[in-house]
Specification:
The chain contains 1 helix and no strands. With 42 residues, it is mainly alpha-helical. The radius of gyration is 16 Å and the shape is rod-shaped. The mean pLDDT is 69.
Length: 42
């Protein structure tokens, strides 16, 4: 989720952009962790 209005510079836009980046980071970390976990099982 990111700010759709390029002219909008409010705090909500900044928070949603930061939250989106954080969510992507967490998602990538979970995916990498699950790959390592699967490798350890087999």
């Amino acid at each position: 989720m990111y700010c759709l209005d390029p002219d909008y510079r409010g705090i909500k836009c900044e928070i949603s952009t930061q939250y989106s980046a954080l969510a992507d980071c967490i998602k990538n970390t979970i995916e990498v962790s699950s790959l390592i976990y699967k490798d350890n099982i087999y």
